[in-house]
Specification:
This protein is of the alpha+beta class and 357 residues long. The chain has 10 helices and 18 strands.
Length: 357
């Protein structure tokens, strides 16, 4: 056990760059300022502390979230009487890049955090999912399309996180397993996607975000919801796939007006475009799809990640043993049914913290 005596610790990943990609310029997407992200973390912390969490590990970012949190914590405790968990900034050099998230998750796992609160979009949650193993995420939306994380008030998410981290709600009742798509290149597993994996016709990166469906050849999805935003919405409007079904979907796209179907899909907030579908196939769990050799770019959860060459052998499959996420509404229902909101004294006593470790 790496936790300090009596500690119930969690990690917090608040991506300062989430929701700031080029889709802000080509669509009507709203954004989250650094100040608002810090406010979300504040509410998350207050909810967690009330229900048992004593320490939160945070990235020492360069964008201002960390500094804002220090000021908010001091003002909140000194002036407003707020009860915060201790904030401990990770001993790492942060450059506000994707590598920061991967390194921070590794450090948090080594410190024995019981869960990781994630503020970001699909891309941020994908990065956390790559390194978090069986440590669950509390997924909070602050990105662009947000197909994977669902909108939830941070105070409630913090309460649920505290209930789970303090073991008031057992993990086996609180967490849900998610599907992922995995891709192997020349026999080596290279990466994963939480929502969608696409092959595009681009042969260079340009902007990382993808919003032009005419450049997309194939869309693979883990789940497909009819009310989604992003490339997964094409699948959701064609053949919805629930999150808890052990299946995914593969679509082959074509120009609008051709193929088996043309539909108008919300590719980004406020950006509704025609998409042609040439072929649609169910993707069963662990069924390997070997792709034709081709030049293409691989897009994972809405962002271009790496190029494929014509000589590459590429395989894609659906893995149902992906990361865990906390079921926030489910935790709140269980806690309410058990009367946990009637007596909070147990969460304020250090002895009870120690007894639950």
């Amino acid at each position: 056990m790496n936790e300090k005596s009596h500690d119930i610790s969690v990690g917090i990943i608040a991506n300062p760059a989430a929701g700031s990609d080029i889709r802000r310029m080509v669509s009507a997407a709203s954004g989250f300022s650094i100040a608002e992200k810090a406010n979300i973390v504040r509410r998350f912390c207050l909810g967690m502390r009330t229900f048992g969490v004593t320490r939160a590990y945070v990235i020492p970012d360069q964008s201002g979230i960390a500094g804002s949190l220090i000021k908010q914590k001091k003002q909140g405790e000194d002036v407003l009487g707020e009860r915060w968990p201790e904030l401990e900034f990770l001993d790492m050099r942060a450059e506000d890049k994707a590598a920061d998230t991967l390194a921070a998750v590794d450090l948090m796992i080594r410190k024995g955090v019981r869960l990781i609160g994630v503020l970001g979009g699909d891309g941020t949650h994908r990065l956390v999912a790559k390194n978090c193993g069986n440590t669950p995420m509390v997924a909070l939306s602050t990105g662009t399309n947000n197909a994977f994380p669902q909108f939830q008030e941070a105070t409630i998410a913090g309460i649920a996180a505290g209930l789970v981290a303090s073991h008031a709600i057992p993990m086996d009742l609180a967490a849900k397993r998610n599907k992922v798509l995995r891709i192997a290149v020349d026999g080596e597993t290279k990466d994963l996607a939480l929502v969608d994996l696409c092959l595009t016709r681009d042969i260079w990166v340009g902007s990382r975000a993808i919003w032009k469906p005419e450049k997309v050849k194939d869309i693979f999805v883990t789940f497909a919801e009819a009310d989604a935003i992003g490339l997964s919405s094409v699948a959701g409007l064609t053949n919805p796939i629930p999150r808890d079904l052990n299946q995914g979907l593969h679509l082959v796209l074509c120009p609008p007006g051709m193929g088996i179907q043309t539909l108008y899909a919300p590719i980004a907030p406020g950006l509704i475009l025609p998409v042609g579908i040439a072929e649609m196939n169910t993707l069963n769990a662990l069924e390997v799809k070997n792709l034709p050799r081709q030049r293409a770019f691989v897009t994972l959860d809405g962002e271009r990640e790496f190029a494929l060459r014509e000589e590459n052998e590429v395989a894609i499959w659906l893995d149902t043993e992906g990361p865990l996420t906390i079921d926030i509404p489910g935790v709140m229902r269980l806690a309410a049914a058990d009367g946990m909101f009637n007596h909070l004294s147990r969460f304020f006593q250090k002895d009870s913290f120690h007894a639950q470790n």
